[in-house]
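[Meeting: bench + compute handoff]

Bench side (C.D.) handed over the final construct sequence. Compute side (W.E.) agreed to return the predicted structure before the next meeting so the bench team could plan truncations. Sequence as handed over:
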Amino acid sequence: MKVVIAVTTDHAVQYHADLARYMSDNGWDVTFISSGGDSLDSLGEDVAVEHIPMERNPSPLKDLGSLFKWIRVLYRIRPDIVISGTPKAGLLGMMSSRLLRVPNRIYWLHGLRLETASGKMRTLLELIERFVIASATTTVAVSPSLRNLVLSMGLAKESDISVIGSGSTQGVDTLRFAPTNDDAERAAEKARWGLDPNLLTIGFVGRLTKDKGIEELCEASVSLLEKASNFQVFLVGPLEDAAGERVIAEMEARGVPFVAPGKIDDTSAAFKAMDIFCLPSYREGLPNVVLEAFASGLPVVATSVTGNTDLIDPGENGLLVEARDSEALRGALDAVIRDPNLRTELGSRALVTARSEFDVQHVISEQLRFLKAVSSRANESTH
């Protein structure tokens, strides 16, 4: 059976790379499409790959050119299933596969960008989501809360959108992401990244953008510095908007101890240098970075937004605060900094959650069963 899996950017290839390899190893003829880059090229050692340039933001002329390339590639491959996720690949993949009457068109919904949009942009994004979901034969939401949001907005009928198992794009590799063995190993990892081995490390992994709540993390860190001096901040990820640049400048100006190495290839090493993980984002689907922090045995402080609420049981395996509330974020971080027993308890329960519900092999096995069932039903309906 021929399958096409697609995402927009090279960064997003990781979301479905393990699924693509697993399907290929089990006899599926897999082609992976993205805009291209090192991750796609690396995946090309295991599956066929196609480079189709796609712009993340609306760009009518370029998008039209990308659509024609999509149609040519799909016409040549003639897939039985097209799986596309992330906004632009979702739009182009579902549009082209519908035009070519691909029998199984699966829109893998990673999140709703429109959650943090307003005005005409929100209206446009909502229209696009409605069109993409209508073009798909089925939509997969990566978390129950995301599915509920889609239904509450009237973007899909209940029968048209599913969650596989507990959710997630591909779970977490609990062998690669694992707790540090002892304090000495953590201290060594901190030194490796230029961090102070003697300070508690609040870690963040993701794009340094406004929607990820980094401004609130900065404000909370500045406020914390007035009451506690035994912490530092580790910002892992690329600068992608002015908010990220402002945060770096503000932390430097206010004397917050931090290290920001930019984008790194193996984030499992970065988690080993952290004592606390913080994700203060405004929206999520089901955040892989929280699963990676869980698997690393870290206590997590996050915002009570879509996706985060599916993973974190407040007071059990993490703490939740309202989004955009830097003072609430400061309070939660302060509580975890000051209480080593709380850090240990939250981290231990988080590790159980990762291993019991979201191990990559378990998640991908469930996804493969789902895809087989979907394709079987489609084949039966055509005969």
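W.E. noted at the follow-up: The mean pLDDT is 94. C.D. will use this when planning the next construct.
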